[in-house]
Amino acid sequence: MVSTRSSRRSGVGVGVEEDENRIIVVVTGANSGYGLGICQALLSNLSLPPGHPVPASTPQPTALPPSLQHLLSPSSSSSPPLDRGKATKSISETKPPTLTLILACRSETKALEARQTLLEGHEKELSKREKKGMQSREGWLEGLRIVWEGLNLDDPGMGGKGNGVLGFCERLKDGYPHITTLYLNAGIAAFCGLSYLRFIKQIVTEGMPRAMSQPGTWQFEEKGVRSADGERGMVWGTNVFAPYVMIRELVPLLRRSPHTLPFAPRVIYTSSLTARASKLNEHPLDDFQLLDYPHTYSASKYMADLVMVQLDQEYGQPSGEALSDERPVRIFTVDPGCVTTNLGRANFGSIALLVKLKFFLYWLAFYICRLLGSPWHPVYADQGALPMIYAALIPDKYLLEPSQVPSQKFAVHATRWGKTKVDYGEVDKWEEGEELGRGIVERCEVLRKEWRRRSGLE
Ligand SMILES: NC(=O)c1ccc[n+]([C@@H]2O[C@H](COP(=O)([O-])OP(=O)(O)OC[C@H]3O[C@@H](n4cnc5c(N)ncnc54)[C@H](OP(=O)(O)O)[C@@H]3O)[C@@H](O)[C@H]2O)c1
């Protein structure tokens, strides 16, 4: 069915053609690290031939909350175990969906390079499949769209224009009929060096896997860094506030994701293993932009986790209205483990050759951690991205309702020989953190309204 946006209830934008059979995925920070890994894994999973199961949507026992374990347990007597194969979503035999992948990046050059990398890698994968005798998917490449949309999370996008946050969201509302998955993956840390002495001490006292995934005090961060316009804490603004604004602004598009698609609309936030309540000061709301913190990164990731819990409760519940076409949108947070990416590059100094060497040694150390049995070191970004893909594609029946537990945190589980799994987890101390989460959301909302007012959007 083809209708235009102008026929829609909300009247957001005009003239955008509905595309009932197109999965539309937005990935922030898609040009490197986990973002690129998410895109690679999506292409790999969604390009399979008609009738083929989508591997990343296969329910995993380790990823199920305890109260849903019976769904996959072979020993359960109360309810028959489901066949995992049948529980997996498959590419439709009759109308396989197409894909639009929106690379939401601040640099056009980097995004176009990433697009090229993705297409080349994907074409290689397709020809490998063909050589193995797998049927190819007719029309897949012709229907595939990988596009760049400029997004700078450190810029409000006043006026609802340009590549700032509001400008990006307005452009999406005007240019796309819906969003199926919103990956809020881009993030920053104000890392500025490390103490080798403290690093070695932590390795000796706590072991290498822990020292290399949950740094004690060996990693230095710059304190009080402000956004380019000087109005916010930069790490808070990028990791907490911008994702908050994007969810609020883009939920209407997520709600419009067609029922005909095999996957429900979801938001997936890239959090961290280090996102813990203990990272916040005693009175977090007094400095909610984290300007006086010696370590802002983990604190920002925990704050964002609490925000996601609040928003999942707000948007994830089915609407009470019988005829409502407002679909629930589940919002999850993911711990992708530790992978050597550009995020830690500032730790390595500025001499190009030394940076390369340190980068390699860091990667090697992560590999050794995995060999030592660390579940936190998937080593490769596409492996770290697996829980993010899983969180987006797993059928609803394997999830708890937000009214039960609104804080599911999918976590990567690396295994020694590289067979990455997904673990069930919950946001640290989410029940105690409810009030704080509400407080942060209130403050974010005041600021979002202010942005919108200054932009003439309300
Ligand atoms: N690496 C790890 O071990 C690890 C562990 C846990 C969680 N994470 C999280 O994973 C996510 C992805 O990071 P990564 O490790 O994959 O590192 P990365 O390769 O540095 O990716 C970060 C991405 O965020 C983008 N970004 C940064 N600031 C931005 C801004 N103001 N506006 C728009 N985009 C911006 C970067 O764009 P540019 O290329 O233009 O800078 C880049 O694409 C982050 O949220 C990070 O906190 C990483």
TrEMBL record:
Q: Which residues cross the membrane?
A: none
Residue spans of biased composition, Low complexity class: 65-82
Region Disordered: start and end of each range? 52-91
**Segments of skewed composition (Pro residues):** 52-64
Which keywords fit this entry according to its UniProt record? Lipid biosynthesis, Lipid metabolism, NADP, Oxidoreductase, Steroid biosynthesis
What GO molecular function terms would the record report? Answer: 3-beta-hydroxysteroid 3-dehydrogenase (NADP+) activity
What is a single cellular component term in the Gene Ontology annotation?
Answer: endoplasmic reticulum membrane
Q: Does the keyword Oxidoreductase apply?
A: yes
Listed PANTHER family: 3-KETO-STEROID REDUCTASE ERG27, DEHYDROGENASE
Please identify the protein, giving its name as recorded: 3-keto sterol reductase
Originating species: Kwoniella newhampshirensis
Q: What is the lineage of its organism?
A: Eukaryota, Fungi, Dikarya, Basidiomycota, Agaricomycotina
